Amino acid sequence: MEHKLDYKKTFTLGFGFFAISITWSVYNAFMPLLLGNYLKSAALIGFIMTIDNYLALFIQPAVGFYSDKINTKFGRRMPFIMVGMPLAAVFMFLIPQTKSLYALVFALLFMNLSMSIYRSPVIALMPDITAKQHRSKSNSIINFMGGIGSLIAYLIGGRLFELNEGYPFILSSFLILFSFGVLFLKIKEHRDVLHYESAEEKRNLIQGLGIAWKDKNARNLLFAICSWFIAYNGIETFFTKYGQSYLGIQPAQATTTLAFISLSFLVFAIPAGIIGTKIGKKNTIRMGVGLAVILTLALYLLKPQQSNMLLYMRILFLGVGFAWASININSYPLVADMSPLGLLGTYTGVYYLFSSIANIISPVLLGFLIDVIGYQVVFLYGAFFFGLAFFFISQVHDKRAENGND
């Protein structure tokens, strides 16, 4: 039976990724500045920002796996969304209300744990309700919504931060609640999921994770995912401090500059899905990663005293946005295509497991390098790990990765 892409339903599901994107963009752009009110060491700031990811290593694969197995009147994924999204909104709201380092760390820890509860299930809903041949297009629409979330975080959030450090977090909190309302009211799993009754498999969590790990192509893809998230996460996490400390610009100028990546991502999200459908997901990802290596090396060569430096940086960031769209739009659909029936949530959890590993490694590693070498290392670091990602994605040889229509 030929399933057509339901654009309205996909757009509705995009509110889940919209909430995720605005939350992480606000968190990565402004949390180092809040922590900077208490701490001076970049490495220590990076470490505190990643404490939560150690717990996410266990939570995300487990949540993904159990969302494959449970069956409630709300569906398989929705119960986790019903718990995680409201809690994430509450703790996001509490973050700027804290008055000490300990209270701040407590709030950011539980905000991230709440995100871990719902992140895998909300993303797994995309391939649940979308036929395989339409997943790149569907993911492009969802990521388009995510791009809008990032733009709001950087453009509006940057201005709000100048008025009050807490305002971007409060805005994010209310938008999470709004997005939850849209998802809960509009997505009904028993009605919308294509193969709802086919998902029952008698495997335990370890067996499910073992299946993913033993698949050589899936394993190389996961290493590639980890590498490019190390590159991107490091740049995004420290760019506001890089701008302030190395380039000598204001935080609002830095977040506005970051917004050029989000703007470009937004423009190219839909085309990246179309390209992935036409020439294949793997080929599109390789093109994006190769371009990211070239652009981050060019950004490394820009110097603070250079005339029109900020203009050149913003132009290059437009290219980074296109590269990141080519990578990000097609990577999760490729992971989903590789998942056996009944393990889609598990593979989604493993996808986020490897991105969580990147989130643990990158801020601490880059923070340490900044402490030793200086902020000029940021884009060289990005180029190295994008290069490593290019190597791993080139090792993926799978018919599901080679074909455009799969």
Overview of this structure, please?
The protein is mainly α. The model has no long low-confidence stretch (mean pLDDT 86). It is globular and about 55 Å long. 81% of the residues lie in helices and 0% in strands. The protein is built from 15 helices and no strands.
SSE arrangement, N to C = HHHHHHHHHHHHHHH
Report low-confidence residues grouped into runs of 5 or more.
none
Largest sheet features: none
- The count of β-strands is 0
Instruction: Output the structural class.
Output: mainly alpha
Counting copies of identical and different chains, the oligomeric state is single chain
Strand content: under 5%
Number of helices: 15
Helix percent band: over 70%
What is the 3D shape? globular
Mean pLDDT: 86
State the end-to-end CA separation. 16 Å
Alpha carbon gyration radius:
20 Å
Helix/strand layout:
Layout: H1 7-36, H2 42-69, H3 78-94, H4 101-129, H5 135-163, H6 167-186, H7 189-192, H8 205-214, H9 216-247, H10 251-279, H11 281-301, H12 309-338, H13 344-372, H14 378-393, H15 399-402
